[in-house]
Amino acid sequence: MHSTFALTLLEWFRDNGRELPWRSTRDPYAIWLSEIILQQTRVQQGWDYWQRFMRRWPTVEQLAAATEDEVLREWQGLGYYSRARNLHFAARQIVEMGGFPRTYEQIRLLKGVGDYTAAAIGSMAFDLPTAVVDGNVYRVLARHFGISTPINSTEGKKEFALLAQQLLPEGEAAAYNQAIMDFGAIQCTPQSPRCLLCPFQESCVALREGKVDELPVKLRKLVVKERRLSYIYIRCKGYTAIRRRGEGDIWQGLWEPVDTSDFMPTEPPLLLKKDVKHVLTHRVLLCDFYYYSTEQRPSLPEGYIWVKGEELGQYALPRLIEILFQSLPD
User: Among 53, 16, 59, which residue's Cα sits nearest to residue 38?
Assistant: First the structure.
């Protein structure tokens, strides 16, 4: 049954697989870069960023030689900026290793690379027989084999990882891994899967038992917290004040305008935006944004720097700050 599943999947992939630029290469750098970008990004958006990075830094040595600020600026708009910092750190790890690691265990040591990413890179770049397990794989396997073990439980992770490895056809790890990811993304989608056109119609347990919408099973709902922010844009003779955010919080290493807890003028500033909602994975941000024009620089806490307003584009900004800046008066 397992071999039939793999053969059917590979046949579907030959006719329906996505043509993506990083699939036409065995360059581990290009493949690794695509996997990091696509960790929490849709393919269409990630494609543009992958091409941009490959043009600017065609080799891992060139990426490693870049500054973190340069990498963050190139990443701007993709979100989850820890991926960019990890990417840069790992590039330097690879250079220190003397080249891209060629075993699953060594690839797994790279910062920002988990089990799934290591398996994807290893199979696609070096034909390593390691099965990928991500959201798409959980969904396809849970539905086809009728598995109700929660995918985010310890037991579930072990069960799905074992099954995924058992299904891996010998000598075709790269094609199979790409096939099951594409199948989950195109055919066996979270909502409204294309069951009527599915090659597994006869063997899919979920379809036979009417459980397509119930599988996979996931325990517990993520608690999303609300957080309030308040910024003031100070314009002083063409300059404005910004600071880099520190470690251990959202937007680490990115730049932001003045926090109103650090400075608020005695005369009421202009309120440009109130309760601007910005959704992150673990929290919802609600932000107020003020504008203040002055001829004299106010005293600000340590950490703030004064930059020309037209040079703000040289600093990596969170997406929310970019949105707020759009409301600034000319």
Answer: 53
Is residue 40 pLDDT above 90, yes or no?
no
For residues 260-270, one letter each, b for 16 or more C-beta atoms within 10 angstroms of the residue's C-beta and e for the rest, the string is bebbeeeeebe
Report whether pLDDT(1) > 60.
no
User: Which sequence positions are flagged as catalytic?
Assistant: 35
Q: Identify the DSSP state of 184.
A: I
Contacts of residue 94, Cβ cutoff 8 Å, sequence gap at least 6: 29, 60, 64, 100, 101, 110
| pLDDT on residue 2 | 62
- What is the model's pTM? 0.75
In a 3-state reduction of DSSP, which class is residue 167?
helix
pLDDT at residue 248 in the model:
87
Nearest alpha-carbon partner for 221 in 278, 161, 279, 281: 281
Which residues, including other chains, have CB under 8 Å from residue 284's CB and lie 6 or more apart? 224, 225, 226, 227, 277, 278
Please state the rounded mean pLDDT for residues 187-195: 96
Q: Are 321 and 261 in contact (CB under 8 A)?
A: no
DSSP 31-92: HHHHHHHGGGS-HHHHHHHHHHHHHH--SHHHHHHS-HHHHHHHHTTS--THHHHHHHHHHH
Q: Are 247 and 304 in contact (CB under 8 A)?
A: no
* More confident of the two residues 55 and 80: 55
CA distance linking residue 105 with residue 323, whole number of Å: 41
